[in-house]
């Protein structure tokens, strides 16, 4: 008897068709959010790209021309929580991505900055989920992808607000998963290690000061110290995982956290 023919690549490939779906991506003007907006639009989604950076959004809109789906931009500061909640109405897919970082020891961490980080990275996601759920529940389908971080699972010194917000986001995401399950709504965290984005470039100087190191040693001696794969991830690698989690194939993945961290959390 001859051996069975192994399946070819076509039989195994996953099609990411988000035609007919509306997707809201926050923090879409740069870095990971921009890559997610472009990836979801390439899969056919009608993307609503939200950010406080109007110039970055205009550049995104130009880049999105010609994709299968569309990208509609809206300038909004997520500290306006009521506006954030109403912006999420009517969306099938919600990618909570917007974020910011400040690197300081706790005793020097400005309380107002702590408050802002928690507002943008935890309270706004709650309000966006709250705004999105009625439509998702009415359709019996929805995808919530929360861009967390390795810092949703691990702490690093000098990042109290960021680590606190990401740990909170993990809890919010799990709760949304439990409540959303009977309505066909999944909620998942994606946990990147360090990704090549402006957020990382901006923190090199702060990390150097906090750790007492020259800036050119921060990448290898602080940021990539724990990773098995010692390079930065690219935003497109994160966007590909996000697109998969938004697809019909990911309907059983909920209430969990997907690490894209080059082996950091294997320790
Ligand atoms: P980035 O700075 O390139 O992009 C963040 C975007 O959020 C910016 O466009 C910014 O304008 C927007 N934003 C910030 N505050 C806002 C507000 N108040 N209202 C509206 N928009 C606001 O950063 P990034 O690296 O692409 O980060 C995106 C997400 O990924 C963040 O949640 C971050 O914590 C997470 N993350 C990043 C890394 C990394 O290494 N870059 C690693 C793990 C997780």
TrEMBL record:
Any Pfam family hit: adh_short
Matching InterPro entries: 3-OHbutyrate_DH (IPR011294), NAD(P)-bd_dom_sf (IPR036291), Sc_DH/Rdtase_CS (IPR020904), SDR (IPR050259), SDR_fam (IPR002347)
Annotated coiled-coil segments of the chain: none
PANTHER family: 3-OXOACYL-(ACYL-CARRIER-PROTEIN) REDUCTASE (PTHR42879), 3-OXOACYL-[ACYL-CARRIER-PROTEIN] REDUCTASE FABG (PTHR42879:SF2)
Similarity comment: family membership: Belongs to the short-chain dehydrogenases/reductases (SDR) family.
Name of this chain's protein: 3-hydroxybutyrate dehydrogenase
């Amino acid at each position: 008897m001859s051996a069975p023919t192994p399946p070819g690549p076509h039989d195994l490939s996953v099609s990411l068709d988000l035609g007919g779906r509306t997707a809201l991506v926050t923090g879409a003007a740069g870095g990971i959010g921009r890559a997610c907006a472009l990836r979801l639009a390439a899969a056919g989604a009608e993307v609503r790209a939200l950010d406080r950076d109007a110039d970055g959004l205009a550049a995104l809109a130009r880049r999105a021309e010609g994709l299968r789906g569309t990208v509609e931009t809206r300038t909004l500061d997520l500290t306006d929580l009521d506006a954030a909640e109403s912006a999420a109405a009517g969306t099938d897919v919600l990618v909570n991505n917007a974020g910011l970082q400040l690197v300081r020891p706790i005793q020097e961490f400005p309380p107002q900055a702590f408050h802002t980080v928690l507002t943008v990275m935890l309270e706004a996601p709650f309000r966006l989920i709250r705004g999105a759920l009625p439509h998702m529940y009415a359709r019996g389908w929805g995808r919530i992808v929360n861009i967390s971080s390795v810092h949703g699972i691990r702490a690093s010194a000098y990042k109290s607000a960021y680590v606190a917000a990401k740990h909170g986001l993990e809890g919010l995401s799990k709760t949304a998963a439990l409540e959303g399950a009977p309505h066909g709504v999944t909620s998942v965290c994606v946990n990147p290690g360090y990704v090549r984005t402006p957020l990382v470039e901006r923190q090199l100087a702060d990390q150097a000061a906090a750790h007492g190191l020259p800036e050119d040693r921060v990448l290898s001696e602080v940021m990539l110290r724990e990773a098995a794969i010692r390079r930065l991830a690219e935003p497109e690698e994160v966007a590909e995982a996000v697109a998969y989690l938004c697809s019909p194939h990911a309907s059983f993945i909920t209430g969990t956290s997907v690490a894209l961290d080059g082996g950091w959390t294997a320790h």
